[in-house]
């Protein structure tokens, strides 16, 4: 087994108590113990002490701390597994453990051969493709999500070249654990997801939107549509060009979404290339003090290149390498993705150019949206989601900063609302967004 823990099987620790502490020794659950007191909870990792945790960082984040003034605040390690994913997703993972398999076409199916029924299909992963399959099946781990977003494109000199705002929506017709009907939306069982992104500012891009409709077959490219207001009609785009920025100045590609933005079988040669402790943002990422949840920045030439962010010691991360086998003109040769062994959440990604040199990175932060007496509810439980993302092009020095905020105009972040489909995930919805 891969996610074995050290002292006892991780899956047993989670099943017994919903807590991972029994699976790991103290030095993998405490940054102070790991660094022998050189770094403690509440400290900042900076260029003055980063060497003590260099082995816990991917190479691009390490360089940014040393060379660009990036810093990371350290929080205590989260041991309660119910705080590392949406509550119902964790419950479904435990209830459905052992039921998933790959069929003859290498699609993930339930024991009865039908599409997956919900939760993580491979909570005790034995291969790289199992980790990626779970990530590709359910990006945000909710049945439906809408994220109000701010995006800033920061040049190497620290200037914000572009500032975008808009929304990102996604909905799963299969594997539903909250929204009725469950586990499938009748008539849509052949689809994996609906996903859209649109922009409200700057004015020159207002109404520009994109809609992807994913087939459940893991080797089929999604259908991709766009609405550009000046043309006043929806157009279909080639969907295999997934390594180009959606908008000028961006360091984000369609392929980057959740580190698994392409159908599972358009990548290949999945293999595990490493494992060990890691530093990542799995808690304390929600800025409850700002009315719109916006985050502060620091570092770089003008003090605004990186998000203020909090990380914790993850006792065990699994690094998977993958290659873009169905993209002959891809500008990258491979990617390395770090998965948190506690919950299989993606906590980091580095891509490499065609010469094998580090090219771009993608690191994000997650959180339960609960802080002190403040909380955002998702049904019966506090909302869990991503909070911010840093996408960096190490060769050009540019950085894309992306954050989830409470609201952009009348578009509000939320999960599992059936209205997300009609408002954001149809071709007529694209037209409506473009004329609003």
From TrEMBL:
<dbReference type="Pfam" id="PF07044">
    <property type="entry name" value="DUF1329"/>
</dbReference>
<protein>
    <recommendedName>
        <fullName>DUF1329 domain-containing protein</fullName>
    </recommendedName>
</protein>
<dbReference type="InterPro" id="IPR010752">
    <property type="entry name" value="DUF1329"/>
</dbReference>
């Amino acid at each position: 087994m891969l996610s074995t823990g050290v002292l006892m099987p991780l899956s047993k620790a989670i099943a017994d108590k919903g807590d991972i502490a029994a699976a790991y020794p103290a030095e993998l659950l405490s940054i102070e113990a790991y660094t022998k007191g050189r770094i403690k909870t509440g400290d900042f990792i900076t260029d003055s002490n980063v060497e003590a945790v260099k082995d816990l960082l991917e190479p691009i984040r390490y360089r940014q701390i040393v060379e660009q003034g990036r810093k990371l605040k350290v929080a205590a390690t989260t041991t309660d597994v119910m705080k590392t994913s949406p509550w119902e997703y964790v419950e479904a993972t435990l209830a459905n453990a052992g039921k998933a398999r790959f069929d003859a076409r290498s699609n993930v199916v339930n024991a009865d051969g039908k599409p997956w029924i919900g939760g993580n299909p491979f909570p005790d992963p034995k291969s790289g493709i199992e980790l990626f399959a779970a990530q590709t099946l359910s990006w945000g781990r909710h049945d439906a999500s809408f994220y109000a977003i701010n995006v800033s494109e920061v040049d190497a000199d620290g200037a914000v070249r572009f500032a975008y705002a808009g929304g990102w929506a996604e909905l799963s017709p299969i594997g539903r654990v909250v929204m009725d009907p469950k586990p499938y939306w009748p008539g849509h069982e052949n689809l994996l997801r609906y996903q859209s992104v649109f922009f409200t500012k700057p004015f020159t891009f207002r109404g520009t939107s994109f809609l992807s409709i994913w087939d459940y077959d893991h080797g089929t490219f999604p259908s991709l549509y766009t609405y550009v207001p000046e043309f006043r009609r929806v157009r279909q785009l080639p969907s295999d060009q997934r390594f180009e920025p959606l908008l000028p100045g961006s360091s984000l590609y369609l392929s980057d979404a959740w580190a698994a933005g392409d159908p599972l079988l358009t990548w290949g040669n999945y293999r595990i290339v490493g494992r060990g402790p890691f530093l990542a943002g799995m808690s304390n990422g929600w800025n409850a003090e700002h009315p719109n949840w916006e985050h502060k920045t620091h570092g770089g030439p003008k003090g605004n290149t990186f998000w203020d962010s909090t990380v914790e010691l993850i006792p065990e991360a699994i690094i998977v390498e993958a290659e873009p086998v169905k993209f002959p003109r891809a500008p990258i040769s491979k990617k390395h993705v770090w998965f948190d062994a506690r919950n299989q959440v993606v906590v980091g990604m580095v891509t490499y150019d065609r010469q094998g040199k580090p090219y771009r990175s993608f690191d994000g932060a997650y959180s339960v949206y609960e802080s002190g007496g403040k909380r955002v509810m998702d049904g019966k439980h506090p909302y869990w989601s991503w909070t911010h993302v840093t996408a960096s092009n190490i060769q050009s020095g540019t950085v894309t900063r992306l954050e989830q905020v409470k609201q952009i105009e009348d578009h509000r972040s939320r999960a599992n609302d059936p209205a997300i489909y009609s408002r954001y995930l149809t071709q007529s919805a694209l037209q409506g967004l473009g004329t609003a």
